[in-house]
Amino acid sequence: MKLGILGGTFNPIHNAHLYIAAEAYRQLSLDEVWLMPDGIPPHKGLDGDATRFERLGMCEAAVKSIPYMKTSDEEIRSDGRSYSYLTLTRIRERHPDDEIFFIIGEDSLDMFSSWAHPEIIAKVVTLAVAIRHDSDVTGSITSVCDKLRVKYNARIRLLHTDYMDISSSEIRTMLSQDGIYPGNLSRLQVLLPKAVLKYIMDHRLYGCMKGKQMSPKEDIKPSDFPKVKQDIEKKLEKKLKPSRYTHTIGVAYTAASLAMAHGYSMDVAFIAGLLHDCAKYMSPDELLEFCQKKKIDITQAEKKSPQLLHAKAGAYLAKHEYGIEDEEILHAITVHTTGMPGMSLLDEILFTADYIEPNRDKAKRLTEIRQAAFKDFHLAIQMILSDTIDYLKETGKDIDETTYRTYEYYKEQ
User: Are 206 and 50 in contact (CB under 8 A)?
Assistant: First the structure.
């Protein structure tokens, strides 16, 4: 097999990275290209707030629809600093008969002699160097290649590529300064694969939407969350029945636990959990009357089963009574009962937390679903939907069409 390996911090991965990987695949007639995020790079610190696992997650999202591209967690799995000579040696030992190309840029070619043990790297792989079309291939680059061939017996192939003016630091700056709503969205759609942009949005990376989560009047800092939580809890304890309040606290802590496991803001997930049933103090008739009065859309299924309206009414109360302006939180509250195809990460967290929180004890596969929620999130959601539909059929209750569509969506996933 002919294998290409493109390493980097990928903080975040963007379309220029994928372009280089695709050109290596094409020009070298490779069988596969691996994207290999650095764990802890030896030569520089990492800017931004993306963890190594989130950088790997972005790479996985980027290559999901590209058959010949894969990701490697070779360096992510090590807690020490990442050195290419060690990583590539391990890969060579596992692939002794494969032809391995290590894809680098021309700037890295200039610095190659300063890397840790370049002689080992040159021994175990062929260097595939991406050269911009306007570079002096016949002059300085040829000279550098000749010196490396003599000094290290290096095998070098040149890849001729177009220049793409994209930098990860520019993307991080755009996200941290203005977020993606609405100013930078069109630009970010050019710089990033669609799936990577969604991953960043879902996980709130690089400051995306931070400072806009809780209030239109002022930014809420992490240190403010305890007071925000306390204020909401006091209001809810007065409004909800004790059993409902106990369930609410259970959902909030479970949502925070799922957020911790799946790389999302624990504070934001906790607030969503606290408020998901904030309209449950109303009876079904009161919910119907409330939604009609507030001009909230009501489906035919909700007219037949108005208790479902507690989700939409809850989102309205979260905004107008509890001061929540974060659209992700409001949306998660809105869909937490029926779900919907293509839910955001927070939607999925709240939907799952509502089902598996510790005070629940009736569902038939609850233990298995709880375990799946921390290992295979989408499998857990599929199981919840399947069991919910079975339960509603057995009890003769109406099933919202959205629940069917959500189940079919996650079954396909």
Answer: yes
For 211-235, write each residue's pLDDT tens digit: 344 333 334 555 677 888 999 999 9
Nearest Cα to Cα of residue 176 among 217, 202, 211 = 211
Token pair recorded at residue 410: 């996650």
Task: Specify whether the CB–CB gap between 214 and 228 falls below 8 A.
Answer: yes
Task: Output Rg (C-alpha) for the chain, integer angstroms.
Answer: 26
For the stretch 26-58, pLDDT in tens is: 999 999 999 999 987 665 555 566 889 999 999
What would the two tokens of residue 80 be?
């020490």
C-alpha to C-alpha distance for 217 and 370, rounded to whole angstroms? 38
The answer to whether 45 and 9 are in contact (CB under 8 A) is no
State how far the Cα of 231 lies from the Cα of 323, in Å rounded to an integer.
11
* Helix, strand, coil percentages in the chain from 3-state DSSP, rounded to 5: 60, 10, 35
Q: Which pairs count as long-range contacts for 227-235, CB under 8 Å and 24+ apart, including other chains?
A: 228/271, 229/270, 229/271, 229/274, 232/271, 232/274, 232/275, 232/322, 233/274, 235/321, 235/322
Which of 181, 179, 232, 215 has its CA nearest to residue 325? 215
Q: Could you read off the pLDDT of 251-302 as tens digits, one per residue?
A: 999 999 999 999 998 999 999 999 999 999 999 999 999 999 999 999 888 8
Strands 99-105 and 32-37 turn out to be unpaired
CA-nearest of 126, 117, 113 to 154 is 126
Q: Which residues pair with 130 in a beta bridge?
A: 105, 159
Rounded CA separation 140/143 (Å): 5
CB-side neighbour CA atoms (13 Å) of 38: 18
Sheet holding 2-8, edge to edge: 69-71, 32-37, 2-8, 99-105, 126-132, 156-161
The DSSP symbol for 95 reads -
CA gap 285, 283 in Å, rounded: 5
Q: Please tell me the distance from the alpha carbon of residue 1 to that of residue 32, in angstroms, as a whole number.
A: 8
The dihedral region occupied by 339, where left means phi > 0, alpha psi between -120 and 50, and beta the remainder, is left
List C-alpha distances in Å: 291 to 215, 320, 335. Answer: 23, 14, 16
Instruction: Give residue for tokens 């709503």.
Output: 181
The secondary structure element, H or E, covering residue 390 is helix 377-395
